[in-house]
């Protein structure tokens, strides 16, 4: 995605955050191992990622292969140092009664998408071969499209995604953080479902929990939709305008192990939008009026990553990796709890004016 040019500034090329939805995906989360040689390996990959994707993509130019690379808060300190993206911090876990949005280790995210799983598999294989022992894998999920874009609980997923020109304004940072214009934030969570309990509900009960009809995917009228419905709690309105995110969730599972899940992945120009959605779901709006879907689904992972622009990645060089940030600034990851939860500030508004690195070599 190319971002617009403004007076006196060159356009910045974003990563493939807004790539079209595909039939297959692989989500790789890893931690960065200690050592300057491992930091150098990861910085070298930053500059070469686009070429690696092109090499695999050339096997099927119609396959829609793409890869988004994101960095956790601690990894940013170790790989790049200051300046930091303005809103990058560790994922904030949430506890409310039996509901728990967990925070788990993760320095790096690779979100690989294609129409064919073999393309995703090949790129993941090449990436792991390239980074070698520089990272330790934490989680790997192979996602798939399930019939007519439904998740494993039987409902269509992603209906309210922005489309067309609106996508850039939803996912790409603009003047609010000019050092990192063209970047994005992404939150990932791995949900496991109690399908036995869910399928024991009537279709009408399921529809009231989700807030949509199951067969036709039509939103329930407000007169019959509970305020605890999933789509009601995940609708964020600021100054009379709905603030959207871009979802590319994928079903996954291992039937023989009784594992049925949804890999949630949401992109936004500010993590506060998704964080507010999660607070609404897990704590409730008002507190106690929580998302009843969580009676049948629980999280086993949770991470926040920053996705820099492709222009930024291509500017990174191997030979100037920063030293370990022993005195790196601390960022609170204290859990949000129902008793002490405070509202998340509203998302910054404004037109999308993308800057450039302007010859600044502090990242290199």
Gyration radius, in Å: 20 Å
Q: Decide which structural class fits the backbone.
A: alpha+beta
Strand and helix order: EHEHEEEHEHEHHHEEEEEHEHE
Broad shape: globular
Please bin the fraction of helical residues. Answer: 10-25%
Low-confidence residue ranges: 4-8, 324-332, 339-364
What is the tally of beta strands? 14
Per DSSP, the total helix count is 9
The mean pLDDT is 88
Largest sheet: 5 strands, antiparallel
What is the CA-CA span between the terminal residues?
23 Å
Query: Beta fraction of the residues?
Result: 15-25%
Tell me what the structure shows.
With 364 residues, the protein is of the alpha+beta class. The protein is built from nine helices and 14 strands. The protein has helices at residues 36-57, 73-79, 117-131, 166-171, 195-199, 203-210, 230-233, 271-282, 310-315; strands at 24-32, 66-71, 94-96, 99-101, 108-114, 135-144, 184-193, 236-238, 241-243, 246-247, 250-254, 259-268, 297-307, 336-337. Strands 7, 10, 11, 12 and 13 form a five-stranded antiparallel beta sheet that branches. A four-stranded antiparallel beta sheet has the order 2-5-1-6. The protein starts with 23 loop residues before the first strand and ends in a 27-residue tail after the last strand.
């Amino acid at each position: 995605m190319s971002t617009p040019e403004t007076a006196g500034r060159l356009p910045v090329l974003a990563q493939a955050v807004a790539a079209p939805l595909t039939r297959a995906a692989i989500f790789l989360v890893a931690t960065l191992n200690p050592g300057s040689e491992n930091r150098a390996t990861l910085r070298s990959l930053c500059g070469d990622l686009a070429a690696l994707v092109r090499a695999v993509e050339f096997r099927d130019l119609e396959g829609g292969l793409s890869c988004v690379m994101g960095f956790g808060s601690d990894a940013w300190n170790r790989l790049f140092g200051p300046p930091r993206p303005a809103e990058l911090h560790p994922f904030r876990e949430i506890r409310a009664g039996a509901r728990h949005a967990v925070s788990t280790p993760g320095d790096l995210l690779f979100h690989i998408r294609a129409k064919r799983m073999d393309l995703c598999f090949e790129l993941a294989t090449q990436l792991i071969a390239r980074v070698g022992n520089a990272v330790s894998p934490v989680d790997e999920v192979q996602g798939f499209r399930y019939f007519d874009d439904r998740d494993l609980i039987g409902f269509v997923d992603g209906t309210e995604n922005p489309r067309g020109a609106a996508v850039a304004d939803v996912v790409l940072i603009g003047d609010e953080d000019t050092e990192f214009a063209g970047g994005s934030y992404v939150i990932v969570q791995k949900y496991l479902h109690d399908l036995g309990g869910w399928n024991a509900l009537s279709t009408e009960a399921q529809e009231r929990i989700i807030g949509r009809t199951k067969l036709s995917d039509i939103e329930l009228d407000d007169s019959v939709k509970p305020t605890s419905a999933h789509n009601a709690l995940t609708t964020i309105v600021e100054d009379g305008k709905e603030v959207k995110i871009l979802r590319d969730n994928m079903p996954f599972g291992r039937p023989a192990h009784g594992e049925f899940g949804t890999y949630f992945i949401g992109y936004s120009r500010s993590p506060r939008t998704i964080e507010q959605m999660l607070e609404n779901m897990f704590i409730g709006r008002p507190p106690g009026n929580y998302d009843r879907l969580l009676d049948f689904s629980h999280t086993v992972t949770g991470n926040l990553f920053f996705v820099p622009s492709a222009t930024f990645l291509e500017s990174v060089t191997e030979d100037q990796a920063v030293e370990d940030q022993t005195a790196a600034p601390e960022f609170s990851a204290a859990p949000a709890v129902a008793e002490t939860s405070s509202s998340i500030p509203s998302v910054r508004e404004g037109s999308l004016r993308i800057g450039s690195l302007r010859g600044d070599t502090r990242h290199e």
